Amino acid sequence: MEEFSGTTAQLDFGRSTSLGSNPAIQIRSNATTTPGLRYKNLGKSGLRVSNVGLGTWPIFSPGVSEEQAEAILRLAVDSGINLFDLSEAHSGTRAEIELGKIIQKAGWKRTSFVITTKIYWSTKSEERGLSRKHIIESVQASLQRLQLPYIDVILVHKADSMCPMEEIVRAMNYVISQGWSMYWGTARWSPVEIMEAYTNCRQFNCVTPIVEQSEYHMFCREKAELYLPEMYNKIGVGFMAWGPLSMCLGDAQNGEKLWIPKGSLKSKSQSYSWIEDEVNKEVSARSSTRPHCSVHISVLFFLFSVHLAVMLHLRKDPQDEARRLYDKARDISNLAEKLGCNAVQLSIAWSLKHEPVQCLLLGATSPEQLHQSLQALQLLPRLSTGVMLEIERILENKPVRPPPISTLALRESGVPCGAESPKEEDISMGEEQKESQKISFCEIQ
Q: pLDDT digits over 347-404, tens only?
């Protein structure tokens, strides 16, 4: 369920868009509510949030002053954004403290905005995990820093393999029953972990999670497009996305564009991800042999894609992979120019175009940066079927489920359950070889 924040008369795009046209998107700085902003139910709950939320870790980063952070938040509220996402792992405790001060100063009604904050990580290594003790203490500390009577949605940031799922869901149910939070959800959980939590909630009569927060952009699609819609249809878990600004290009001295990994830029606080740590090691190892580059960064909120990080972690050829990803990013930039926008706006609009995304988190370090990102909402009517097909042709990474293989087929091919699926040449082997494999397989059993 969703609703428009304004009327369609506000959206004036002129002629229809084709890949060959270059109409410019008009900036409407005098609009009180951003054209194209919608409000959707988060999961299958009754909580309605704007389809664009504000991620606060770049807003409260060390390089942003308190006055500038307040200006960004006021612009977000004036634009119709009603969701603010916090995380101690990204910006420490400063974000909650500063946001609480700004809310008190502005005098916003508590019913007019939605606060989501995360638990699990902590700036102190001994204070992390999902024990009942840590969950309750973390929630109480967040309430004190925010100076609020309750938090709308508490997100469990990563599952804890050392803590029983029953303890986690019972603790979250207790937090909600005490009135400290209205809902709870997950962040960076696998579909199996989400289903396990849901099953435990049903078994012990606890409140179920309503949302999963996960990465989603042009180079990270499998979980969001294949599995989270299934979670929504089966158990009502919605999808809050982050990371739409996945492309970061720089200029070398010879004029050639470079693809810069996420780990090579230190605009984010200390990493809590093993993937990012691996990327940092790979980049530092190669930095001594790479020529000096003078880099001009055009976008600095959510940088690059975990896709390249995974390739580096798996020790595939990083140069070829980086070149291939750069070629795709260049083609996306060229397409954005034809559409009369920039690659950042096209990336945001592309993420919002997918129906499973109920809320897309954006970050900014200045009001101008947030204003430019919000203009991507006006691009949504231009993303016709032809444009989306052109983007798919450029990316060539649409996730597809592997074809199911029945247990009977595995037995006939002589492959035990849980082993690798039979290869094509194995399936086409002669009947005598198949019969011999059957006999050997029976002997093993």
A: 999 999 999 999 999 999 999 999 999 999 999 999 999 999 999 999 999 998 878 7
**Residue 300: enclosing H or E segment and its boundaries?**
none
What are the backbone dihedrals phi and psi of residue 440, each rounded to the nearest 5 degrees, phi first?
-65, -35
Distance in angstroms (rounded) separating the CA atoms of residues 353 and 124: 39
- What are 89-98's pLDDT values in tens digits? 776 788 999 9
Structure tokens at 444: 């093993």
State mean pLDDT over 177-198. Answer: 97
Closest Cα to residue 198, out of 190, 206, 188, 208? 208
Q: How far is CA 159 from CA 36, 118, 120, 189, in A?
A: 35, 12, 8, 6
How many angstroms separate the CA atoms of 51 and 240, rounded? 9
Phi-psi label, residue 14: left if phi above 0, alpha if psi -120 to 50, beta otherwise: left
Closest of 249, 219, 216, 425 to residue 333, by C-alpha? 249
The rounded distance, in Å, linking the Cα atoms of 326 and 331 is 9
Q: Buried (b) or exposed (e) across 389-424, using 16+ Cβ within 10 A?
A: ebbeebbeeeeeeeeeeeeeebeebbbeeeeeebee
DSSP letter, residue 220: B
Distance from C-alpha of 67 to C-alpha of 53, rounded to nearest angstrom:
20
159 burial type by CB count under 10 A (0-12 exposed, 13-18 middle, 19+ buried): buried
Q: Report the distance separating Cα 150 and Cα 280, nearest Å.
A: 38
Compute the Cα dihedral for 305, 306, 307, 311 and give only its sign. Answer: positive
pTM: 0.73
79 has a pLDDT exceeding 80: yes
Contact predicate 401/106, CB 8 Å: no
Q: With CA atoms as reference, report the closest residue to 69 among 373, 299, 374, 363.
A: 363
* Dihedral angle sign, alpha carbons of residues 138, 144, 146, 149: positive
Question: Which of 245, 336, 243 lies closest to 299 in space, CA to CA?
Answer: 245
230 Cα distance to chain centroid: 17
Tell the burial category of 362 from Cβ atoms under 10 Å away from its Cβ (0-12, 13-18, 19+): buried
Tell me the C-alpha distance between 232 and 197, whole Å: 14
Beta carbons of 422 and 413 less than 8 angstroms apart: yes
Distance (Å, whole) CA 414 – CA 423: 12
Q: Residues 225-248: pLDDT tens digits?
A: 999 999 999 999 999 999 875 444
Proportion of the chain above pLDDT 70, given as a percent: 65
Convert the pLDDT of each residue in 308-324 to its tens digit.
444 444 445 667 777 88
300 within 8 A of 365, measured Cβ to Cβ: yes
